[in-house]
């Protein structure tokens, strides 16, 4: 599509239903009550000149350019701050208005550099456009005297520049930071002629201030004051393509703004239903990894992992791989083979990998990285509601009165939705946070949780049961909902269980570390505060009782009737971009696409008929089981698409032992990741910018990913999987991923109505999409649960086997930070590392003092699994007895510390609870140094012989 | 940890988490869970472990594995 700036109606849409009619420039129009005159005019195609107005923010009324005349009213009111009324007659263009606007614009331009031809925003500048729109031809005041046209630029931010000499002080950037992002970092310092946009204090620049580089200010700026560095370097874009972000599970849609095949910038798409025009530092700016020098674009093979890599043709790589796979299958049997699908790849690619394993390898040894994050969500919500998915869309938060956030840190891990949550909280919703750490949602500018339940790691089930105890014993349960929608007998069993005095907040206070009074108040607020919604993350799932915790959450929502309508529900915040989709696509070893167990003969036969092969009805190995079996000698070959299990999975030493025991490890990725240290085949992957397909976000929203540039390796990932499948004897002939989605739709009832054409026409669809819900399902379980009656599940608190003691007296919990993503393979290869270039260990001041440690010290972090060294950050964000770190950097390898304990139902690792000790250190451990040496040796690539 | 120890630990963990529903239900649901989610080689190994004594299996887990053996007989 040829480049056009996104439409901006000047003020937000009104949510009122009543409509009013008015006349604008002789044309009658009907709009919702509460609409501004500016927006009404814009919707009928008349652009009233404006500078300070944007429909992303509330009206401001400062620029005085949008003046109009209204019959019967004195003066020339600003159209942005004037709501429409029935029968209003408006004129947007008269000689008087023209003269006024020209005068206003003349003043603006008298203090603006006249360097349009060399300005980065030339041709894409609202100030320039408006000067033309009002017919400004000269500036009578001259350019002498005091002005702001020569001021130093702030180039500190790696992604955008701030040039105050071009600023018109419209405050759009400040308001975007306040209203859209909710960080409130920016301000206008001084007054009158001295007014100036500031990143905070006078001493702050955009890098060291509280700015989180979400880009909302840059997007809002009507001049070249805030401009992407990429635009300064490359120039303005000449076309744009709508596509979907490949970072977290929010699933923001962006306009990839291009010049030829060069990406100029990613700009959040205002019509995107997941992000509503907002972005975070990762999606907006951190795409440079796509062209990073570390990118491997040619296939490589080696006979053994102690050899250097050899660059080969695709034909040789595929032939080598096929030979190894078939040899292993012949020698050890098909159950010695397996594959891992990726939550970073598209639905179509994920579907093909599981199809390759099931139909090509002849086994169900397929799993996905959701194993280590949200597999308990699949189990828990499947047991209670009947399907593995969040119940709401993101818009639902607008109707929420009480948010209960447990084990999630949305402002870091799901920042765009975190901003929407904060907006709703600023508007008056209440907040309960259950988290061992004081996350930003607990307290940050204009946000403060009503209750922070800073529980001891590993006691989620106990605290949720205590909340349930209060709800049931104080008569706060919604009996009418339960009787109508849930199994009453099971409710009674559960109610009796949670009513036991041993489950009360008072009885569990010592265990959880949360005062009984706080628990009681939180329970009452959740049950009686209006629409209550639960949002949760990996702090729920990555425990030995992850599945129990998910079920306990579902129990709470059912007990209080908080399901089946906007504003309520149970909402898992998915970690990676396509975790939901990877799970939907049959990546788990026990089920086919659509969450249907392999033992279901009818389902299995439908796939057998379509694929033309017999399928094994028995479940396959999960990732940890594959590694166990490899060490045990019965699992020999693994195809891994887009996942780095050596860095992301727990107990690194066990993972490396498993990988080292295999005879054929195939890594299909963008970079030689940590897992590739143990690989025999490297198949180069393609980025999300280089492929077509779909991602499904945390709200079940299926969205198109559109190719904007040619794959650097020559192939999209689905094509690579197809080539591998055909090399081992399959006869696949897909020519476009839309054909793969057509196959998914004909075999998966919840996707029956999905196709690329429909996604293209409707923008997105939320599954289920079928004859009953042809336009998708924003809110699930409206009239009944997928399984029929909602099922209350008794969830007894079972303490983890991971115990603190004299040797390991502290509890380690792990998490993420805003600027880095997962194992950091992408974000570490961008300028985001300026904010986080190493993993730090957070420790409470009391624990640090006891050990004689201070911020910046090297410390050794040791558990029964292993030890690593990293630097310390002393902070009261964590409670005494708890330490915290991220896992973004391979130099740290935080998972050397985590153990092989896992969720009882799904084997999801217990990342969030590890008993550790922390002591002074003088630098990296022997293990880290040895690992670095191994990595260097493993990444050797033979020099290519020159062509004849 | 040996494979048998790990499998026994996993089976015990399932049984402990289901025990609050009553022993008989826990035995049935533990057996169903293992049948539904464990790869055949893992089921074979845990069955062999029980047949060999299975001393690290909890009573409920042991009865669940016994039920699986009986089912496949």
Secondary structure layout plus pairing:
The complex is a heterodimer of chains A (948) and B (73).
Chain A: E1 19-24, E2 27-32, H1 37-43, E3 69-70, E4 89-91, H2 95-110, H3 126-133, E5 160-162, H4 172-181, E6 187-189, E7 196-198, H5 216-220, E8 226-228, H6 229-234, E9 239-244, E10 253-259, E11 262-268, H7 281-285, E12 300-301, E13 310-311, H8 314-332, E14 337-341, H9 347-361, E15 366-368, H10 375-384, E16 402-406, H11 410-413, H12 415-426, E17 430-434, E18 443-444, E19 447-448, E20 451-453, H13 460-473, H14 479-485, H15 488-499, H16 505-512, H17 516-528, E21 532-536, H18 538-541, H19 546-559, E22 569-572, H20 579-584, E23 591-592, E24 596-597, H21 601-611, H22 623-632, E25 637-641, H23 645-648, H24 652-660, E26 664-669, E27 681-684, E28 693-696, E29 701-705, H25 717-727, H26 737-747, H27 756-762, E30 764-766, E31 810-815, E32 840-843, H28 845-851, E33 858-862, E34 867-874, E35 882-886, E36 914-920, H29 926-938
Parallel strand pairs in A: 1-4, 14-15, 14-25, 16-17, 16-21, 17-20, 21-22, 25-26, 26-27, 31-35, 32-34
Antiparallel strand pairs in A: 1-2, 3-4, 5-8, 6-7, 9-10, 10-11, 12-13, 12-27, 18-19, 23-24, 28-29, 29-30, 31-36, 32-35, 33-34, 33-36
Chain B: H1 3-18, H2 23-37, H3 40-51, H4 59-72
Helix pairs in contact in B: 1-2, 1-3, 1-4, 2-4, 3-4
């Amino acid at each position: 599509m040829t480049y056009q700036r996104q439409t901006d109606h000047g003020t937000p849409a009104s949510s009122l239903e009543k409509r009013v009619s008015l006349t604008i420039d002789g044309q009658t129009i009907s709009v919702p009550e509460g609409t501004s005159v500016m927006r009404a005019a814009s919707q009928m195609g008349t652009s009233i000149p404006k500078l300070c107005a944007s429909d992303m923010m509330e009206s401001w009324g400062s620029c005085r350019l949008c003046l109009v005349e209204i019959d019967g009213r004195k003066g020339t009111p600003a159209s942005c701050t004037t709501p429409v009324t029935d029968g209003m007659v408006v004129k947007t263009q008269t000689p008087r208005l023209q003269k006024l606007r020209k005068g206003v614009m003349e003043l603006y331009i008298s203090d603006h550099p006249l360097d349009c031809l060399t300005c980065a925003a030339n041709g894409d500048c609202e100030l320039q456009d408006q000067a033309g729109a009002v017919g400004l031809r000269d500036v009578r005041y001259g350019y002498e005297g005091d002005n702001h046209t020569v001021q130093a630029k702030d180039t500190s931010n790696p992604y955008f520049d701030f040039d105050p000499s071009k600023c018109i002080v419209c405050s759009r950037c400040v308001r975007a930071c306040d209203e859209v992002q909710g960080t409130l970092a920016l301000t206008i310092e001084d007054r009158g002629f001295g007014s100036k946009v500031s990143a905070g204090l006078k001493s702050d620049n955009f890098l060291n201030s509280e700015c989180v580089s979400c880009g909302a200010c840059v997007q809002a700026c009507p001049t070249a004051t805030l401009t992407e560095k990429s635009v300064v370097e490359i120039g303005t874009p000449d076309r744009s393509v709508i596509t979907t972000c490949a970072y977290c599970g929010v699933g923001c849609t962006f306009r990839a703004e291009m010049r030829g095949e060069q990406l100029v910038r990613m700009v959040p798409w205002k019509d995107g239903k997941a992000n509503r025009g907002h972005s975070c530092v990762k999606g907006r700016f951190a795409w440079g990894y796509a062209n990073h020098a570390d990118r491997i674009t040619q296939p490589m093979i080696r006979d053994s992992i102690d050899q250097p890599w050899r660059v080969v043709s695709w034909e040789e790589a595929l032939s080598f791989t096929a030979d190894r796979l078939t040899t292993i299958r012949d020698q050890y049997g098909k159950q010695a083979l397996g594959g891992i699908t990726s939550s970073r790849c598209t639905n179509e690619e994920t579907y093909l990998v599981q199809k390759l394993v099931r139909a090509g390898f002849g086994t169900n040894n397929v799993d996905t990285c959701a194993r280590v994050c949200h597999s308990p969500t699949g189990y828990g919500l499947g047991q209670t509601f009947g399907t593995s998915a969040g119940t709401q869309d993101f818009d639902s938060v607008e109707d929420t009165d009480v948010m209960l956030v447990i084990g999630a840190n949305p402002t870091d891990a799901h920042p765009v939705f975190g901003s929407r949550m904060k907006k709703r909280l600023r508007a008056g919703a209440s907040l309960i946070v259950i988290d061992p750490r004081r996350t930003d949602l607990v307290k940050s500018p204009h946000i403060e949780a009503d209750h922070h339940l800073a529980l001891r790691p590993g006691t989620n089930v106990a605290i949720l049961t205590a909340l349930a105890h209060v709800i049931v014993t104080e008569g706060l349960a919604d009996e009418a909902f339960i009787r109508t929608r849930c199994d009453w007998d099971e409710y009674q069993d559960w109610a009796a269980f949670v009513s036991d005095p041993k489950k009360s907040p008072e009885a569990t206070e010592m265990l959880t570390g949360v005062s009984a009074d706080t628990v009681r108040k939180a329970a009452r607020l959740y049950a009686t505060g209006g629409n209550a919604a639960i949002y949760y993350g990996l702090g729920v799932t990555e425990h030995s009782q992850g599945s129990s915790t998910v079920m306990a959450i579902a129990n709470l929502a059912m007990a209080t009737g908080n399901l089946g309508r906007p504003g309520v529900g149970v909402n898992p915040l998915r970690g990676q971009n396509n975790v939901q989709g990877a799970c939907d696509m049959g990546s788990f070893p026990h089920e086919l696409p659509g969450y249907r167990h392999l033992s279901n003969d009818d389902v299995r036969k439908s796939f057998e008929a379509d694929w033309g092969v017999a399928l094994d009805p028995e479940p396959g190995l999960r990732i940890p089981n594959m590694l166990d079996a490899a060490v045990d000698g019965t699992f020999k070959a693994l195809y891994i698409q887009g996942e780095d299990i050596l860095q992301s999975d727990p107990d690194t030493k066990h993972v490396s032992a498993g990988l080292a025991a295999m005879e054929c490890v195939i890594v299909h990725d963008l970079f030689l990741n940590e897992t590739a240290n143990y690989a025999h085949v490297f198949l180069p992957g393609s980025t999300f910018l280089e492929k077509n397909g779909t991602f499904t976000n945390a709200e079940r929203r299926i969205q198109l990913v559109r190719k904007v540039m040619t794959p650097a390796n020559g192939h999209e990932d689905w094509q690579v999987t197809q080539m591998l499948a055909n090399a081992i004897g399959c006869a696949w002939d897909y020519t476009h991923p839309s054909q793969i989605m057509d196959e998914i739709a004909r075999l998966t009832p919840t996707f029956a109505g999905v196709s690329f054409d429909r996604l293209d026409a409707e923008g997105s669809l939320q599954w289920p999409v079928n004859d009953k819900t042809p336009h998708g399902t924003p809110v699930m379980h409206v009239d009944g649960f997928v399984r029929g009656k909602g099922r209350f599940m008794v969830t007894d608190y079972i303490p983890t086997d991971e115990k603190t003691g004299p040797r390991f007296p502290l509890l380690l919990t792990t998490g993420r930070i805003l600027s880095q993503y997962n194992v950091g393979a992408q974000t570490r290869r961008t300028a985001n590392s300026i904010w986080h270039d190493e993993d730090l260990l957070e420790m409470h001041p009391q624990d640090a003092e006891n050990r004689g440690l201070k911020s910046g010290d090297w410390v050794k972090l040791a558990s029964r699994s292993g030890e690593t060294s990293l630097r310390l950050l002393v902070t009261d964000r964590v409670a005494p007895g708890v330490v915290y770190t991220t896992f973004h950097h391979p130099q740290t390898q935080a998972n050397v510390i985590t153990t092989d304990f896992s969720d009882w139902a799904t084997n999801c690792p217990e990342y969030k609870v590890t008993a550790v000790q922390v002591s002074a250190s003088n630098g990296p451990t022997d293990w880290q140094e040895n690992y670095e040496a191994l990595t260097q040796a493993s990444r050797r690539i033979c020099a290519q012989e020159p062509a004849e | 940890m040996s494979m048998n120890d790990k499998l026994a630990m996993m089976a015990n963990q399932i049984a402990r988490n289901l025990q609050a529903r009553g022993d008989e239900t826990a035995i049935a649901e533990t057996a169903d869970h293992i049948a539904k989610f464990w790869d055949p080689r893992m089921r074979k190994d845990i069955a062999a472990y029980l047949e060999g004594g299975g001393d690290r299996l909890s009573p409920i887990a042991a009865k669940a594995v016994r039920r699986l053996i009986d089912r496949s007989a």
